[in-house]
Design goal:
With 547 residues, the protein is α/β, with parallel strands linked by helices. It is 21% helix and 11% strand. It has 17 helices and 20 strands.
Length: 547
C-alpha cells in the first residue's frame, strides 16, 4: 500500500541497501537484493524517474511500497520500462495519475497477479481498459473510485484467473454486473457501499459463483460483501444457489428483513454474517439457529432483543459477536454467554447490559476483546473482570467508571488497548492501572481529570505505547512533554484542548515515529510552531490544529 516516505526510513544510514551506498551496477545484483534496494529507495523518497532508470535489467517483482506523492504518469511510464517482471503493484491514493497515463503506461507484465488502484482520482472506465491484458491477474482492488461505472467493468470480463475482486465504495457503479459472469474462479467479491446497485444487479453479481450445470457442482469457498447496496430478500433467495460454498456474507445496511433471514438460514456453511443496520428482529434471527459453523455474527443496530439473543444459544462455535446499540438487550440476554464458551470478541456497547450481565461472561475464558462502552456497567461490575486474564482490548468508555473500578483490572496484565475516553479517572487511578498494564499500546483517557502526574505514570510504565489520546484534559501542560517523548514508539498523539503551548509542541519533534498529532483547541500553540514541527518531525503526516 502507498505510504509515507518517512515510515521506516530512519535506519537507512545503517542499511547496506541505503541510497547513499547504492552500487553503480544494479543489474548485477541478485534479484532479492535488487528488490531490497528498490524498497529502500521508495521508503526514503528517492525513487525518482531517474533512479528508476538504474533498475533496467533487474528482476523486480513488487511495487507495493510506492509513495503516492511521487507517482505520476511519467513515473509509471519509467516503471513500466524497467520493471518487466512485476507481479504486484499498489497505486492506492496516487491522485497525480491520469486516466490516459494509466491506460498508456500501466505495466501489464505477464507475471502480474495483484493490482490495487484504489482511491486514484484518475481511475475511470477508460483506465480500467489497461487491465484487460493482465490475463494472469488474481486479485484486483478498485475501491473508492467515483468515476468507475458499469462500462468499465466490462474490461475485466476476460480476466478469468481472477479470484479476488473489489469495487467497494465506487459510488457511480449501478450496473455492469453481467460482465462478471465469466469469472468462474472468483472466490471473493466486494461490492460494499456501492449504493446505486439495485437488488437485480446484486443478484446478477452472483452468477460467477453458480455451478455451470447441475452435474458440475463447485466446492471452493466464497466470500461476498453487498453492504449498503440494494440487496434484499430476492438477493437472499438467489444466494440459495451457492448455499454450500458461501462462508462469509456482509449485507449490512441492506433491505434485508425477517423474510430474507429465512433464506440466509439455509446457508449451512456460513462462518461470518453481518446484518448490521438491517430491519431484522427476534423472529428473523431465530431462523439462523441452524448455522452451526458460524464464527462471526454482527447484529448491531438491528431490532433484536434479549429473546433473539437467547435464541442463538445453539451457535456454540461463535468467536465474534457484535450487539452494538441493541437497546432492548440487557443482563438477561447475557445468559447466552454460558453456551458461547469459544467467544473471543464481544461488543455490547450502548445496550442495557449492567453489572449482572458482566458476571455472566465469566464462562468466556477465551475472551480477548470486550466492549462495554456506554452500558450500565459500574465500578462494582468490573470486579467480574478480575479473572479474565485473556483480555487484550477493553472498552470502558462510560462516565460510570471511576478510580474505584479500575483497581479491579490489576490482573489484566496482557491488555494492549484500553478505552477510558469518558471515564472519571484521576492521576491516582492512572497510577494504579498503568503499573499493572505494561503492554499497553493504545489508550484513550479523556475524562478531564488527568494531569501531568498521570501522564508521567503512563510514560513510566507503558514504553510500548503507540496510540495515546489524552485530549480534553485541561490540566495537562508543557511539563508533561518530556515524559511523552520517552514513549519512542508513539505514532498517534492527541493533546487537544490541553494547556500545551508552542514550546511543548516543538519538543514533540523528538518522537521518531509520530505520524498523527491532534492539538485542536490548544490556544497557546502558534501556526509557526506547527509549521516548524512539520519540518522537523521525521514521520509526521497529519496535524489537527485550529487557530
Amino acid at each position: 500500500m502507498a505510504r509515507s516516505v518517512s515510515e521506516g526510513a530512519t535506519n537507512d544510514a545503517r542499511d547496506p541497501a541505503s541510497p547513499s551506498r547504492l552500487p553503480l551496477d544494479l543489474e548485477s545484483l541478485p534479484p532479492d537484493l535488487a528488490q531490497r534496494v528498490f524498497d529502500v529507495l521508495a521508503r526514503a523518497n528517492e525513487l525518482t524517474v531517474d533512479a528508476l532508470g538504474r533498475f533496467e535489467g533487474c528482476f523486480l517483482s513488487d511495487a507495493s511500497g510506492l509513495d503516492a506523492n511521487v507517482v505520476t504518469d511519467a513515473f509509471l511510464a519509467a516503471l513500466r520500462d524497467v520493471a518487466t517482471s512485476l507481479s504486484r503493484i499498489d497505486l492506492t491514493g496516487c491522485d497525480a495519475l491520469t486516466s490516459a497515463g494509466l491506460r498508456l503506461n500501466f505495466p501489464c507484465c505477464a507475471r502480474m497477479t495483484i493490482v490495487n488502484v484504489s482511491e486514484c482520482a484518475g481511475v475511470d472506465d477508460d483506465a480500467l481498459a489497461a487491465m484487460a491484458s493482465a490475463t494472469h491477474l488474481k486479485s484486483f482492488f478498485c475501491e473508492g473510485n467515483d468515476a468507475v461505472t458499469g462500462s468499465g467493468v466490462r474490461h475485466l470480463a476476460s480476466l478469468t484467473s481472477l479470484r479476488e475482486l473489489s469495487f467497494e465504495r465506487c459510488a457511480k457503479l449501478r450496473e455492469g454486473m453481467c460482465h462478471l459472469a465469466g469469472l468462474r474462479n472468483l472466490r471473493s467479491l466486494n461490492l460494499g457501499w456501492c449504493g446505486k446497485l439495485s437488488a437485480k444487479e446484486t443478484s446478477r453479481a452472483l452468477t460467477p459463483f453458480f455451478p455451470a450445470s447441475a452435474s458440475a457442482p463447485r466446492s471452493t469457498p466464497i466470500e461476498l460483501s453487498l453492504a449498503r447496496t440494494g440487496a434484499n430478500a430476492d438477493t437472499a433467495r438467489a444466494l440459495g444457489q451457492v448455499a454450500g460454498r458461501l462462508v462469509a456474507l456482509n449485507v449490512s445496511g441492506c433491505a434485508m428483513n425477517d423474510d430474507a433471514l429465512h433464506f440466509l438460514g439455509g446457508l449451512i456453511n456460513l462462518r461470518s454474517l453481518s446484518l448490521e443496520r438491517c430491519r431484522v428482529s427476534d423472529v428473523g434471527v431465530r431462523q439462523l439457529c441452524g448455522l452451526r459453523d458460524l464464527r462471526e455474527l454482527n447484529l448491531g443496530y438491528t431490532r433484536v432483543t434479549n429473546d433473539g439473543v437467547l435464541a442463538l444459544a445453539p451457535l456454540t462455535e461463535l468467536r465474534v459477536v457484535n450487539l452494538d446499540s441493541l437497546g432492548d438487550v440487557g443482563d438477561a440476554g447475557m445468559e447466552v454467554a454460558r453456551r458461547w464458551e469459544k467467544l473471543e470478541s464481544l461488543c455490547v456497547s450502548d445496550t442495557g447490559v449492567g453489572d449482572g450481565g458482566v458476571r455472566k461472561l465469566k464462562s468466556c475464558a477465551r475472551l480477548r476483546d470486550l466492549n462495554l462502552g456506554y452500558t450500565n456497567v459500574t465500578d462494582d461490575g468490573l470486579e467480574h473482570l478480575e479473572d479474565m486474564t485473556s483480555l487484550r482490548n477493553l472498552n470502558l468508555d462510560s462516565r460510570l467508571i471511576t478510580d474505584d473500578g479500575v483497581r479491579h483490572l490489576a490482573n489484566l496484565g496482557a491488555l494492549t488497548a484500553i478505552d477510558l475516553f469518558g471515564a472519571k479517572i484521576t492521576d491516582e487511578g492512572a497510577s494504579r492501572l498503568f503499573k499493572c498494564t505494561p503492554k499497553l499500546e493504545r489508550l484513550e483517557l479523556c475524562g478531564g481529570s488527568l494531569t501531568n502526574v498521570g501522564v508521567k505514570r503512563i510514560a513510566e510504565h507503558c514504553k510500548g505505547m503507540k496510540t495515546l489520546n489524552i485530549g480534553r484534559n485541561a490540566k495537562i501542560t508543557d511539563d508533561c512533554v518530556d515524559d511523552v517523548v520517552t514513549m519512542r514508539e508513539l505514532t498517534s498523539l492527541n493533546l487537544a484542548f490541553s494547556k500545551i503551548t508552542s514550546d511543548g509542541v516543538r519538543k514533540l519533534a523528538a518522537l521518531p515515529c509520530l505520524t498523527s498529532l491532534a492539538i485542536k483547541g490548544c490556544e497557546s500553540v502558534s501556526l509557526a510552531a506547527v509549521e516548524r514541527l512539520k519540518r522537523e518531525a521525521p514521520a509526521l503526516r497529519t496535524v489537527g490544529f485550529s487557530i
